[in-house]
Design brief:
The chain has helices at residues 3-36, 39-68, 79-92, 125-130, 133-148, and strands at 71-73, 98-102, 109-112, 120-124. The longest helix has 34 residues, at 3-36. The protein is an alpha+beta fold.
């Protein structure tokens, strides 16, 4: 399967997942509204499912950063990491995403964001300490590939 077919498939699956969530919560609300004879329960369920879906879609990056207690990195705070990400983005024709470090000994990295212009890349301190510069570049290249797609 071609890369663009994978991207289209993933987008479709994301929308299906969000739609299934909306339908399930609405059905649960409908069942409770029938059981208790109160239509307000259904209205609440519909509003709740729409609200949580929108929050998840647009603010998942902020939520993830808050949970992981990530710290923003700029050019002055970690010039080597910043240059590495910046160079990979230049090579990929992308804007440089915001960069974060998570204080965790486990080697990990992720990219998130709903759009290319608001994307971010986060790496753990464990990844930076346990891998060579080339290995970190490979991991970041992978993550920036997610941003690109």
């Amino acid at each position: 399967m071609l890369t663009y077919q994978h991207i289209a498939k993933n987008k479709l699956e994301s929308w299906v997942l969000i739609s299934v969530f909306l339908v399930i919560i609405t059905l649960i609300g409908w069942a409770f509204s029938i059981r208790f004879g109160d239509a307000n329960i259904l209205y609440f369920a519909v509003g709740f499912s729409i609200f949580t879906s929108l929050i998840s879609y647009y603010f998942s990056d902020s939520i993830t950063l808050a949970i992981s207690q990530a710290q923003a990195v700029d050019r002055r705070a970690n010039p080597e990491l910043y240059r590495l990400v910046e160079n990979l983005c230049i090579a990929g024709g992308l804007p440089t995403p915001k960069i974060y470090i998570i204080n965790d000994s486990a080697p990990n990295a992720f990219a998130t964001g709903a759009f290319k212009n608001d994307a971010l890349v986060a790496v753990s301190s464990g990844l930076l300490q346990s891998m060579s510069r080339e290995e970190v570049a490979a991991v970041l290249g992978h993550e920036i590939g997610h941003v690109s797609n």
